[in-house]
Write a structure and sequence with these properties.
about 160 residues; mainly beta; Immunoglobulin-like; 2 domains; three-stranded antiparallel beta sheet; 2 helices; 7 strands; rod-shaped
Length: about 160
């Protein structure tokens, strides 16, 4: 119920919050007239959630060419939303020696030391040849009778 105005409430001795668990304690209630009640209570001390428990890194697929080293940072789409000082690294090197979808795990390490393991996919594609990457456009060079034709003038 409501206590009289001027009533003070204090723990009889400090509660040990150094470890999790139910901690017995005694609350000393002192009324304005000087009388007191001692009330036994239980204080429930819970673990602080780790940064790994409080954050959810989002996986992002990335594409690299054969032989290229993928970036763990590019495999976490919300890295900028995670606590400052969070680091990411592939749990083991990603094999990019052949093309294909390569499963990988990004280890996200938070400033408090807690970690999340995030499964991601690295798409490894063949390096396009220069012939695949360029599209020469034919041109019509004009020359006089008997002149040699420079082949570079026939492509624009």
């Amino acid at each position: 119920g409501d206590l009289p105005t001027g009533t003070t409430v204090a723990f009889e001795s400090p509660v040990d919050t150094s470890t999790a668990g139910d901690k017995p304690a005694t609350v000393l209630v002192t009324y304005p007239d000087g009388s007191q009640d001692k009330v036994p209570v239980t204080v429930k001390v819970v673990e602080n959630p780790s940064q790994a428990d409080s954050n959810e890194p989002s996986p992002a697929d990335q594409t690299v060419t054969v032989g290229e080293t993928p970036s763990a940072e590019k495999s976490i789409s919300n890295l900028g939303d995670l606590p400052t000082g969070t680091t990411v690294a592939f749990e083991s090197p990603v094999d990019t020696s052949t093309a294909g979808d390569k499963p990988a795990t990004v280890l996200v390490t938070y400033p408090d030391g807690s970690q999340d393991k995030v499964p991601v996919t690295v798409k490894v594609v063949e390096t396009p040849s220069q012939a695949d990457s360029n599209e020469p456009i034919p041109a019509t060079p004009t020359v006089k009778v008997g002149e040699s034709v420079d082949p570079s003038k026939s492509i624009s």
